[in-house]
Amino acid sequence: MSQPIIELRHVTQRYGDHTILKNINLTLESGKFYTLLGPSGCGKTTILRTISGFNQVTAGDVLFDGQRINDVPANHRNVNTVFQDYALFPHLTVAENVAFGLTLKKLPKADIATKVAEALKLVQLADFGNRAISALSGGQQQRVAIARAIVMQPQVLLLDEPLSALDAKLRRAMQSELRDLQQRLGITFLFVTHDQEEALAMSDEIFVMNNGEILQSGSPVDIYDEPINHFVADFIGESNILPGKMVADYQVAFNGQQFECSDAGIPANEPVEVVMRPEDLTLTTPAHAKLTVTIDTQLFRGDYYEISATDDRGHDWMIHSVNPAEDGATLGVNFRPQDLHVMRLHEKEAEFDARLETYEGTEESSRDQT
Amino acid sequence: MKKLSRLYLILVFIILYLPILYLIMYSFSQGTTMTHYHGFTWQHYRDLLADPRMLAIVANTLLVALLSSLIATLVGTLGALSIHRTSKRVTRDVLLNLNNILMVSPDVIIGASFLIFFTTLKIPLGFGSVLLSHIAFEIPIVVLMVLPRLKEMSPSMLAAAQDLGATTRELLSRVIVPFISPGIFAGFFMALTYSLDDFAVTFFVTGNGFSTLSVEIYSRARQGINLEINALSGVMFLFSLLLVGGYYWLQQSNQRRKRKRQGAAS
Amino acid sequence: MTKRKTWLYFLPYGLWLALFVIAPVALIVYQSFFNLDHQVTLDNYANYFRSGVYLKMTLNSVWYAFLITLFTGLISYPTAYVLHQLKHRQFWLLLVILPTWINILLKAYAFIGIFSQAGVANDFLRFIGVGPQQLLFTNASFIFVATYIQIPFMILPIYNALDDLNPAYVNASLDLGANRWQTFRRVIFPLTLPGVKAGVQAVFIPSLSLFMLTRLIGGNKVITLGTAIEEHFLTTMNWGMGSTIGVVLIVAMIIVMQLTNDHEPRGGAPR
């Protein structure tokens, strides 16, 4: 494990009676793509501003390369930001915008020109240097903002919901472009978003936040497959969440039946919640199924059908299926033991990680201690 | 209906321009009255150019206008920056209201109160008092022209500049001032016209030795018709046209430059 | 930025506020309590309220300012409205602004010629059969010239208000079945009222103090508050009484501001 580039230790932020950040601990390693994911107002942008130097925390330490930087002003930190509204200077051209930081450093003119050209080439705007900012499309402005930040060769690039102003198609294209850019530059990206799809697509590691706390951190696959609680399961992807009770290790009961599952380390008879992803459920004939449901409605999503159904106990189910079902039909639902994920109520991330360690072994080595 | 409204508009424009054209027409008329055109002559313009007192007053007027506008622009811009930086709403509202007092006060009040002020401080009336008065009543208009541009500036743009390493001084010189420069320019321009236009304030604080064009026209007009004034108005009208034209051209060429850059995109 | 530096930036502007805004207003109020012999007294105010001359003069001045504002408004609103519908309206608007750049005294001077016994105005009256009249040095000529001078300052804020009006409101009104006149009366006019108020502010207050017009055009028959102040300050040298009338004018100004203030003044007072 390499030396962490950014560390937040016990960071708390209060405005009057309002607590924005509650004892945040977070470690970023060099050269990885991180995402802070959470609903608006959860404190993710405050963390970003804390790292960039626009926010003074109430308590705790901010470390850069092992040095405490709480009191270093924004213009002296080797960290740059891509702002949500891009914040390009309207009175300067594209090239002048990108050169802005370098001219402040009083670099020789020739060096600046080379670096600006390189940066613009990197974001595929090589011929746009002389344009006015107002002459660019949203996607192009986005790229200029990125070029302006990366030309400073920061060790960490902070991105504050940079894709939120773009239309859906462009957003998808920019996702792979950003990921590609990060891998080519080899620097740390910290990306802030409320869009779970963006987070899952791009990140090496995601921090899921709510109400000023980091609820869970891990790789996109870990977080998607093993959400720590109801909030995370609901916030990331579609899910069916049902109340249940642990029977024994690898055995859970819900809907009046007992099912095999892949979770352990929970005391018997403890009330739990069970998560099943809609795409893990398959429709079949009632005779061969674990559950029976009645189809209510379905929406065609292009690559699959989103089917809403109700079971005989009145719980709503969402099932993704490549084939349509008939409204009002009674069908069976099947799933495998590994498709069930059991969540304890009020379990903290550390306890969750420790419990997983006890029965999943070395598989979890990629998980970081936070 | 449409024809009627056009007719109305034409009538209003005739009323607006008739007196001005009337003035200029008689500047080319022989004789000494503004009644019945007596044939073309340049005589009044020659008289004007041969009138050393009038020429000195023109020079004085221009000097006061330029000097006062420059100083007012500087102070007003600093004032707008200070008002903009004020985070407390109450303080800002108080500052803005104080700023606007001279904007809405009648000229006589400004003139009379400045006269008391200069007399109390024993500042002699003349060039100095006129210059100070002009600077004083020009500052608020500069503030009002600069403030909207400051408000348009997004906070994240300032954050971006700091993020890229700008110090406070560089922030001001590289980002804020270039961004608000159209407002500063417009403020300077407005200050200039306010100064050239002013009569009442100058009339109060000018004393005996010093005069500006407005005051001179007033004292000559009280003595009756003098076609040299008509010639002067011809010159001033031309000057105004040139100023308006120049201002308009500057704005247009600014936009053209912008459009040229934008044109490259499509 | 350190606290100290900020303070330095504010210094020139703050000095201006203290010396040229607060001090003069304070001085004029202070001065109004002195008589000709530099003694502190309330005589000026007593004089103002007891002798009918000053009160009558004030009423007169307010009445004339009201008429000037009214006529200006009646002429300017339709002008701004028609202007706003034109194709090259920016150009026409520039033509409205241009006369404001001609020195106000030159415009007043022009009317001395136009209204004279043998001037065009009388030529016109002779032509339509009314016969020559004494035009110069009458109340009517004063109101006419003042209105002429103020028109652009009323057109501009109304034009701006019309420009700010979202055309969707007009379309919505027409869509809901209102005719053109109803749309104007119930949608356009109420929504452009702030512009009218700004115009009233820009015209009414200066109209109380147009002393050069009363001298050049009104022939001293019309005495406005402005004329009285000028006379007391520069002719009779009774600064105390002049300041007292000044205080009255300031109070009148505050009242007008309160009545018309839901909008920041756009262009400011004409000079």
Using brief descriptors, characterize the structure shown.
heterotrimer; A: 370 residues; alpha+beta; Rossmann fold; OB fold (Dihydrolipoamide Acetyltransferase, E2P); 3 domains; 6-stranded mixed beta sheet; 20 strands; B: 266 residues; mainly alpha; MetI-like fold; 11 helices; 81% helix; globular
Strand and helix layout:
The complex is a heterotrimer of chains A (370), B (266) and C (271).
Chain A: E1 4-15, E2 18-29, E3 33-37, H1 44-52, E4 59-64, E5 67-68, E6 79-82, H2 94-104, H3 109-122, H4 138-150, E7 156-160, H5 168-185, E8 188-193, H6 196-202, E9 205-210, E10 213-218, H7 220-225, H8 230-235, E11 240-248, E12 251-254, E13 257-260, E14 271-276, E15 282-284, E16 291-300, E17 305-311, E18 316-321, E19 330-334, E20 341-344, H9 349-360
Parallel strand pairs in A: 3-8, 3-9, 6-7, 7-8
Antiparallel strand pairs in A: 1-2, 1-4, 4-5, 9-10, 11-12, 11-14, 12-13, 14-20, 15-19, 16-17, 16-19, 17-18
Helix pairs in contact in A: 2-3, 2-4, 3-4
Chain B: H1 2-27, H2 43-49, H3 52-85, H4 89-104, H5 107-120, H6 127-152, H7 155-163, H8 168-197, H9 200-205, H10 213-222, H11 227-263
Chain C: H1 3-31, H2 43-50, H3 52-84, H4 89-97, H5 104-114, H6 120-127, H7 139-164, H8 167-175, H9 180-207, H10 211-216, H11 225-235, H12 239-260
Helix pairs in contact in C: 1-12, 2-3, 3-7, 3-9, 7-9, 8-9, 9-12, 11-12
- β content of chain C, as a range? under 5%
- Mean pLDDT, all residues of chain C: 86
Individual helix count of chain C: 12
Q: Which regions of chain B contain 5 or more consecutive residues with pLDDT less than 50?
A: none
H-E order of chain B: HHHHHHHHHHH
Query: Ranges of chain C with pLDDT <50 over ≥5 residues?
Result: 263-271
Q: Oligomeric status of the shown chains?
A: heterotrimer
Radius of gyration over C-alpha positions of chain B, nearest whole angstrom:
23 Å
The CATH class of the domain at 60-212 in chain B, by name, is: Mainly Alpha
Family (chain B): Belongs to the binding-protein-dependent transport system permease family. CysTW subfamily.
Organism (chain B): Levilactobacillus spicheri
Domain ABC transmembrane type-1 (chain B): 58-248
Membrane topology (chain B): Multi-pass membrane protein
